[in-house]
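To illustrate the input format used throughout this study, we show a single complete record. The first block contains the structure-token representation of the backbone; no residue identities are included at this stage. The design step must infer an amino acid for every position from geometry alone.
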């Protein structure tokens, strides 16, 4: 007789955090290696990008290759993301670079006053297309849900049907940086505005056990708060931190890769972030198995069968 735990559905919720969300790839790598099943996959912002790609059938190795290609492409090197990454490192820069940044900031501010984002929907679409195949959400290999925010009503919007690319685009539309997505009467932006880690979405989609991956910035502060800008961004960090912790109370297991205080637009640490995700997932394997005690033996058996299958298919 089969244990009732064999019928439990496992949900994986991938949180928002910009570049820090590349750690999600390392987590997924461990899930694959340990043969941990995923019955529902939900994502917010960067979590929807990584989750959507993986749910569609793109493997870990291919995903890492796509990231490497994109980060070394002329498109990324001249992008708003690269400019923001450089700007985040200016605290240690010399006077000449700070003066140059001053004028660039004024230009970007003027641009933002007359447009809904520094990057248009059309420009960002090519980035989404690089990672996400042109399929419907209903066609994904793993049931997948992307979360966005309606700026008009303040509602959480969960995509369960329609274009996977459009859903991920809306979920990743960082306020002020990427132009919101107009959908009928809705104006859709980053899901992380109101839902940093979509745990409750996984529950609503039938997950009995939810494993959450949080990539929020470490709020331990070392630098001084001197300017109005410093105060504003510090306040946002604190709000996000406490919102995330509140949401994480609903998870059965929380995986927290060590992303330190990395800026959300700093993609230069991609390989290290993936490694941190892998490390954090491995450190939580016992917690995952304890959350599902009846499945422990099944995990072991499935892992053995998977290794045997790979050996049989080796040339």
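Output of the design step:
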């Amino acid at each position: 007789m089969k244990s009732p735990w064999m019928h439990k559905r496992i949900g994986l919720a991938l949180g928002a955090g910009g570049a820090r969300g590349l750690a999600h790839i390392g987590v997924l790598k461990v899930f694959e290696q340990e043969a941990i099943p995923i019955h529902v996959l939900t994502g917010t912002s960067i979590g929807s990008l990584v989750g959507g790609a993986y749910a569609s059938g793109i493997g870990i190795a291919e995903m890492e290759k796509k990231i490497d290609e994109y980060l070394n492409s002329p498109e990324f090197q001249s992008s708003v993301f690269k400019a923001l990454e450089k700007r985040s490192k200016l605290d240690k820069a010399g006077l000449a670079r700070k003066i140059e940044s001053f004028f660039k900031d004024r230009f970007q501010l003027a641009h933002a006053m007359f447009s809904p984002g520094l990057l248009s929907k059309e420009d960002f679409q090519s980035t989404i297309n690089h990672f996400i195949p042109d399929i419907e959400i209903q066609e994904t290999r793993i049931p997948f849900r992307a979360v966005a925010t309606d700026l008009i009503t303040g509602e959480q919007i969960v995509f369960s049907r329609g274009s996977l690319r459009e859903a991920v685009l809306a979920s990743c539309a960082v306020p002020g940086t990427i132009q919101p997505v107009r959908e009928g009467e809705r104006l859709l932006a980053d899901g992380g505005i109101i839902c940093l880690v979509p745990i409750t979405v996984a529950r609503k989609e039938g997950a009995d056990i939810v494993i959450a991956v949080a990539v929020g910035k470490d709020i331990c502060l070392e630098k001084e708060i001197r300017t109005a800008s410093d105060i504003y961004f510090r306040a946002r960090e604190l709000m996000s931190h406490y919102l995330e912790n509140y949401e994480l109370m609903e998870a059965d297991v929380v995986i927290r890769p060590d992303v330190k205080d990395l800026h959300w637009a700093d993609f230069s640490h991609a390989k290290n972030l993936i490694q941190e995700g892998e490390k954090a997932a491995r450190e939580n394997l016992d917690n995952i198995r304890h959350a599902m005690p009846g499945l422990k033996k099944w995990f072991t058996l499935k892992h053995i069968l998977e290794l045997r299958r790979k050996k049989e298919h080796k040339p």
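Structural context for interpreting the output: Residues 1-5, 92-117 have pLDDT under 50 and may be disordered. The first strand starts at residue 10 and ends at 14.
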